[in-house]
Structures are given as C-alpha cells and as structure tokens.
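Input record, target 12 of the design panel.
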C-alpha cells in the first residue's frame, strides 16, 4: 500500500514537465506556419520565444525532446484570442506546427 501511495505521489513529477530532453545531444527543427493574416505569440513550454507576423513560416532549432507548443493570437482579436496547442516530439529533421 505504501508503494502505491508513493508511486501516485511521484507520477506528477514525470508527466508535468513542459520539455523532456532525450539523452541524445542532437537537434531538430520546428517550422511554425502562421496561415493567418494576424500575428501570433509562440510559446515552447512556458517561454514565449517569438511573435510571428501573419503569413510567415520561420524555423526554430531546438534540442531533441518532447515539447508543448502554443500559438496565441496577438492581433485582430475580436473577443478572445485564438489559442492553438500541441505536443511535438523533435528528433533529427523537421516537424511543422501549422495554425490556424
């Protein structure tokens, strides 16, 4: 019973991080494709890394790992900003996060 309780207490530590970097030292690329005419703030984990103008597709080189990514509308907001979230595994090569 104590082992089960300890396991339940430790589980959030393993699954609550914004970024998990594999033991590899490689890098990969995320292409952020903003198909809107509005600007969006881009977050990796809790860190805002850039603001994208409309109709742009910049690349960001990152360490290999698992990332939570968010795009939050920053211009052209009518009532509430559009927010797009995903998780992405980066290994060597390129992955695309396309929104909206």
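The sequence produced for target 12 reads:
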């Amino acid at each position: 019973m104590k082992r089960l309780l300890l396991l339940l207490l430790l589980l959030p530590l393993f699954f609550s991080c914004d970024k998990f970097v594999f033991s590899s030292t490689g890098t990969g690329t995320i292409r952020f494709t903003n198909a809107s005419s509005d600007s969006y703030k881009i977050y990796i984990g809790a860190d805002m890394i850039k603001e994208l103008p409309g109709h742009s597709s910049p690349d960001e080189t990152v360490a290999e790992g698992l990332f939570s990514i968010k795009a939050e509308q920053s211009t052209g907001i009518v009532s509430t900003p559009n927010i797009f979230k995903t998780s992405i595994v980066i290994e060597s090569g390129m992955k695309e996060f396309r929104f909206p």
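Strands lie at 19-21, 27-34, 40-44, 47-52, 59-63, 65-73, 83-90, 94-99.
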